[in-house]
Each structure stands twice: as structure tokens, then as C-alpha cells.
Amino acid sequence: MCSYERVREPKAVDRQARVSRRRFLRTAAVATSAAGAAAMVPSAQSQSPLPAKPIPAEVELQPLPFVHGVASGDPLPDAVVIWTRITPDEAAFPGSGGGAATRVRWRVARDEELRDAVAEGEAESHPESDHTIHVDVRGLDAGTVYYYAFTVVDGPHKGAVSPLGRTTTAPAGHVDRQRWAIASCANWEAGFFSAYADMAQRALAGQLDLTVFLGDYIYEFAQYEYAGYGPVRLHHPAHETVSLADYRIRYGRYRTDPDLQDAHAALPWVVVWDDHEVANNYWRDGAENHDPYEGDFGTRRDAAMRAYFEWMPVRLSETSEQGRIYRSLEFGDLVELTIMDLRTYRDVEFWKGGARQPGDARSMLGSEQYDWLTDTLERSTAAWNALGNSVMFSPLHVGATFNNPATRPVVESLSANILSTKVPVPELNELPLNGDQWDGYDFERRRLINTLGRLGKHPIFLTGDIHSEWAHTITHAGAEIGCEIVCSSITAPNVAEATKIPAGHRIFDVASSYLRAANPSLHHVALDTHGYTIVDITAEAVGVEYLRVGDILAAHSPVRSGATLTWRRGAGFGQ
């Protein structure tokens, strides 16, 4: 999300300071527990006064060497990637560059006791890859639940066993149903990760097949800069992430969260980055949140991407080794999931690169990725084409939301572009409210819609970034061909927190009504929620359920069903 209110303090030029191993590896050592801090604040989803600042809590870490849990991802019908990190000693914290290489034995089995093994082998951690381990397990059966674990073979932790992981291969052939969790925008300081805990519980109950994470897995900001009503806990490192060590430390900090560990251990993830894995509003050659004294932007971007590939359960042979993360995965004849990279190849948005002219052909995807996407769509024979999309695809016009002084703060929170340029009100609906989204790349958006229509595809755009719930129809030549489903944020500040208007206030209903009137494709919007979304895909319909966290400032907050809707072929969202 490119519009936010954060404390902007001068950045320290000296980046040599690093978190100490004692601080990183300590257990609960602050005066208050997470639960105690949460008890001090009212519900973030009520109309009560704005919450008081909580006292930052400290996470209690898992014992060495498996401090950061396990994960799996990129499922194929016959393969899945499994992941872990080894911490061989207290000095080998993430980003340290130290620690002895450590051999582990991995096992994949059909049962939780790992007796019915179907694959096993050895791997070794190295400081050069921050002691992370990726294993691409092959020769598996399609559409099957498997369990896995790692065991240390040598060194002082010989015999130590990782937490148990559960994963699922992609189905093949005829597939009746897929249920995916759609998530994005997890800010460590802004709230607790209760949404991840709920995701894990549903996966273990057999209610989810996959998590699709659409970007902003971490945030690069320094402590206190962008914490909403928090911080509920503090970033490590304390300064903004710039170097490879910084990004590794930040990922390591995130992966100590028990709810996030549980969500990774419960089902496979398919992931892509947005901007905050590098720097706010980054594009091909720069970023809004990158200053000259922070060094060469390309060096920073490459360091961030290297840490991402180290810490995420992605299939490295098909992504980073070719310098890209866009890829496609098939789930039988039902749906093909195509992950797009909307950051690495994009042109600068026009507010920063000169005023937009008629026929502006700025690219979000870049020519090579666009050609790959077109080829992928042409070859696809699935009933649905799900497009993993990190920023909102559908148009966003403000209408009367800007004209009403009471709702104008909502518009301002959704835009970091137009409103700062003093565009006359009559022109607001002629220009993109947020040039960082597809609205700023309209030529390529129309080109992609025409491609989808020409090929007779039924797209499901799966979107994150904007920290609020949205659902749109996708139209070509006057006919509804698909939909866009936008999840809210796990914890990153939403419109309520950005405007300092209490969540649940009626002004959000008024603003939502204005937005629906101004955007004919818009069928649902909720501006003051946190959580994730489930998409339930069958041959004829896409069911949508928005899961909402009661209070992100409270550890272990309940997660409840919010809005539900269904897009059907030939009928759209209906009434």
C-alpha cells in the first residue's frame, strides 16, 4: 500500500550497527507478556475510542537449532519444496554470516509419525545461504497430504528434530474444488499475527489446500516508523533494512512468530513479493523509500531478493537462478495459478516520471514477462486462470467520497499521488487516484483484458496491497468474464488506522457507498478490517469469504467470518 502515515525520522547513515546475538536469541525478557499488553487496549473493530499504545512484547523463541520452524511451497502434482533454517549456535543468528555448516536428514512420509516414508535424503546448511535449506522433493503422488521433518546429523545438536510439517501436492486430472487462503501485508510492529493462527487451524482441519501470499511479507521500515496503533513488538534490526544482513535479520525476526510458523507448517504456500520486501513503491530502477546515502539501489534490491529467496519456500531452480519469480502452477483441469511480478520490471509511475500523456504505454510487467504471461494463458486449458497480482487491477475512482469533507480523509488514505499534486476536483476521475496500482498503467491493463477476452479466459485476479477488502467484476466487450478478489492486510495499517477514525464508525459505510456508486465494477468494499480471504473455486463459481481478526493488538484474537459472496459464470456476483 503506497499511502500511509508513519513517523519519518532521519535515517542513520551508519548501517554498521547490528542486533546482538543476546538480544536476538533471548526469550521473554520484558516486563509484560503479549497477552498482558493486549489486555490494555480496546477492540480495534469497535467504535470505542482510539486504543492506547501497548507495551512492546518479546517473542519466546524455539530452542536451537530449529528456531525458525519449517515450511513448504510451490506444489506440483509430483513435487513440493520443503524448507527450514539451522541455527547451529547462538552466534549464528540470521545475517551473522557465521556458524558451522550443518548436515540434516530430511524425511517425507504419508503419516504424522513419519514411518511410511516416501522420500528421504540429506542436505547441508551453509552461512553463505544464511543456513537456510531448500529441498525440492520429487516423485510424489498428486493431490496427497504428506508430512515431513528434518533431523540434525552432526555437530552439537546431533539428533535434534525439527517441528513436524504438513504439506500437499497439487492435484492432477479432473479436480472438483480448490480452497485457497489469500493473504498479504503483515507488519510485525502493527499487530499480532492471529490471522496466521486461524489459517493454520483451518488447514489442519482440511478446509484449505494452499496459501497464496501476495506481497509485503515483511516491511523494511525502522522501528516505530509505520506501526499503526502499535508497536506491539519491535523490529530487528532497529534501523531500516538496506543491506543483505539487514534483510536476513528482518526475515529471521518474522519467522520467530509462532502463528506464522504454524501457518507455514500446516500447508504449502505460493508467494510473490510486492514493494516492502525491498523498499516502498519500488520500480525497476529506484524506490520512493530509497535515499542516495543508502547506496546503489540495484545493490539494495539484489540483496533484498537474495534474502527473500533464502527465507521463502520457493523452487529456486525455476525462480532466482533465472533472475525472476514469475511462474505458473497447475491444479488439474480446474485452475492454473499464474504469479506475476509487478515490481521488478515496471516503469516508474507517471507522477514521478513526468505527466501522463495520451497513449501513455508505461509497462507494469515489462515486455519479456508480458510475452511469457500471454504464452502461458494461450497454453492453459484450465477452467479458470487465477492471476496472483500484488496491486489492485480494477479502476478506482473517488466520486463523491472526495467532495464530502467527512469522507475526504478516506480518499487521502488511499492515495499518495494525485491529492499531493493539487489536481482540480473535476479531473480526479480522469486520472489514477493511486498511480502505484494498475490505474497508473492503464494501457497495459486494457491490453491484458483484451488478451483475456480474445482467448476466452475466465480470470480470477487475486490481489493484496491496499489493506482493505474489495471485490470487482472484470469486463471485456460489455460481458463479465471474471472477478478480482482483494484481501485485507494481516496487520498493516488499514484506512481506519491511517485516518485515526475508530474502526466500525459509520463514516466508513458512507464512504463505501460513495465508492460503489463511482465504480460500477465494485461489488464489495470494507475499509476498516484486518485478516485474510478464502477463495473457494469450483467449475462454475468462485466463492469468497473474508475472515476478520477481532483485534490485531491482542495476541490470540478471535477470527470470524465477515462478508461472503460468489461470482458465477454468466451471472457475476448477482444480488
Automatic annotation (TrEMBL):
> What Pfam families does its record include?
PhoD (PF09423), PhoD_N (PF16655)
Q: Which SUPFAM superfamilies match?
A: Metallo-dependent phosphatases
Domain Phospholipase D N-terminal stretches: 68-169
Q: Where is the PhoD-like phosphatase metallophosphatase domain?
A: 181-545
Q: Which Gene3D superfamilies does the protein's record reference?
A: PhoD-like phosphatase, Purple acid phosphatase-like, N-terminal
- InterPro entries for the chain: Metallo-depent_PP-like (IPR029052), PhoD-like_MPP (IPR018946), PhoD-like_sf (IPR038607), PhoD_N (IPR032093), Phospholipid_Metab_Enz (IPR052900), TAT_signal (IPR006311), TAT_signal_bac_arc (IPR019546)
What is the official name of this protein in its record? Twin-arginine translocation signal domain-containing protein
Species name:
Corynebacterium wankanglinii
